[in-house]
Design goal:
By secondary structure, the protein is α+β, with helices and mostly antiparallel strands. Helix content is 38%, strand content 29%. It has a domain of 88 residues. It contains four helices and six strands; from the N terminus they run H-E-E-H-H-E-E-E-E-H. It is elongated, with a radius of gyration of 26 Å.
Length: 147
Amino acid sequence: MTAILRRAALTAAAVLMLAAAGGCRSHVRVNGKSYAMLNAREERELVLLARETLIRNSKKLITAEETSELRRREPELDIEYRGDCFGEAVVAWDLPRIKLEVVYEGQLNDPDPRRRGIFVRTMKKYPPVLDLRKEQRRRKTPAKRQP
């Protein structure tokens, strides 16, 4: 009897360890197909790798103040799945002067980050363009043209 209980306890412990290690993943449905999603630890690794990539390689793009804000602020993470943990992930920071995006393509949970296909997109923000329509509305009726 004790041997049976011990074997059942070992089996239950093994199942729980596999589940905790990522054996049971969440799934997402895309176009009628079910794909395995990244777990929370893998998503954090993507964000950490994106943050370090930007801080190390974009000294000319962003100022020291923006670098500290990049470390402090949590980014937006948008993942588009095309397979089990496979697809495109965009990690984006919207800073006051610039928008920075790190894009991953391929197997998103690959242990070697060099095989994930990383590239960086930057978009400078410019001040808004003057809206002359407001000025035109404030004026009274336009002057008639002389022939």
